[in-house]
Specification:
The chain is of the alpha/beta class. It has 3 domains: about 170 residues, Cytidine Deaminase, domain 2; about 50 residues, no CATH class; about 45 residues. The protein contains 8 helices and 10 strands. The strands form 2 sheets. An 8-stranded mixed sheet has the order 9-8-7-6-2-3-1-10. The chain has a two-stranded antiparallel sheet with strand order 4-5. It is flat, with a radius of gyration of 28 Å. It starts with about 25 loop residues before the first strand and ends with a helix.
Length: about 325
């Protein structure tokens, strides 16, 4: 007589009746997608807000990048879970029209807990809908914006991959076992990526609202001053590090040394300070000239519109 065995499939391997592709080992989240997830956490819902994750998947499936998301309504009544699949399909079709390169990656939840409903949600996005991630494994992303005392905290993101637990596929059919929502979830690393422009915008958002923020061209000057100050601080750190390495105070990092050498060799070194100042002044004059021409054209258009209205009123 055989002994019963609990069969757990490793998330980074192919599941017996699931996908044939390997689960992602690295998850990147764009800053715009993070803001959408934070906004979703304040959506009115009885227990949690869930939705679909859209993004880009690498050729081998080991890396994914979350670019967009949308909420999919659902209802939890007792032990029953109802997900509005029609809303999911319509939102996915609209997203594909605006950006055909995006693919369904998985789903998100504003509840950081893994409970009995988590497996049901995951089963829906994995294979339970006409639009699912199949044959790729689905990613599950949780976002937490409040602590146990309901205080607002910095968003905490945890990403999971899952694999079926127990008998599945032909074996489950042979044993006449109805297995829905049985998964083992394993965390995978994730990070938030953002561009320089997004980083600058976030730095302004973090400023206290009571401060008198500059407007117009002053914003560009203040931003340039802050970026130059940050760059100067980084240069000072690099110089201090190299001095310590040369003096033998610390052990140098070969990888960091090669990176510094590569960056220095890629930068122009033959430009003098006077020539650089001259180039900067020419660029500033060109920018002012373009701004002046744009202002003149706008003024002429407004004057032409006023003259036209006067002539039409007299006629």
């Amino acid at each position: 007589m055989s002994t019963p065995v609990l069969h757990i499939v490793r998330p980074n391997q192919a599941a017996p009746a699931g996908s044939s592709a390997a689960a992602p080992l690295k998850v990147s989240i764009q800053a715009s997608a993070l803001l959408q997830l934070v906004e979703s956490s304040y959506h009115e819902e009885t227990t949690r807000t869930t939705g679909a994750l859209l993004g880009i998947r690498s050729d081998d499936g080991s890396e994914i990048e979350v670019v967009d998301s949308y909420i999919v309504p659902h209802q939890q009544v007792g032990e029953n879970l109802t997900i509005e699949g029609g809303h999911h399909i319509s939102q996915y079709v609209l997203s594909k029209r605006t950006n055909p390169d995006l693919a369904l990656l998985g789903w998100f939840s504003t509840s950081h807990e893994l409970d009995a409903y988590t497996g049901l949600f995951h089963d829906f996005y994995s294979r339970g809908s006409s639009i699912s991630v199949h044959p790729h494994p689905a990613i599950h992303l949780t976002i937490q914006t409040r602590d146990s005392e309901n205080n607002i905290i910095a968003p905490k993101l945890i990403s999971y991959v899952a694999s079926p637990v127990g008998a599945s596929g032909a074996l489950a059919a042979h044993l006449n076992i109805e297995k829905v929502g049985s998964y083992a979830f394993t965390p995978v690393p994730n990070k938030v990526v953002y561009s320089t422009a997004e980083k600058t915008a976030l730095s302004w958002i973090k400023e206290p609202t009571k401060l008198a923020l500059p407007t117009g061209n002053a914003v560009e000057l203040v931003t340039l001053s802050q970026e130059l100050g940050s760059l100067s601080g980084l240069v000072d750190r690099v110089l201090a590090y190299t001095d310590k390495v040369i003096s033998g105070e610390i052990q140098g990092d070969e990888k960091l040394g090669r990176e510094l050498l590569s960056q220095l060799s890629a930068k122009p070194t033959s430009v003098s300070a006077d020539a650089l100042e001259k180039l900067f002044n020419h660029h500033t004059q060109d920018s002012l000239l373009v701004e002046y021409l744009a202002s003149s054209i706008r003024t002429q258009l407004e004057l032409s519109a006023k003259l036209t209205s006067i002539v039409q009123s007299e006629i």
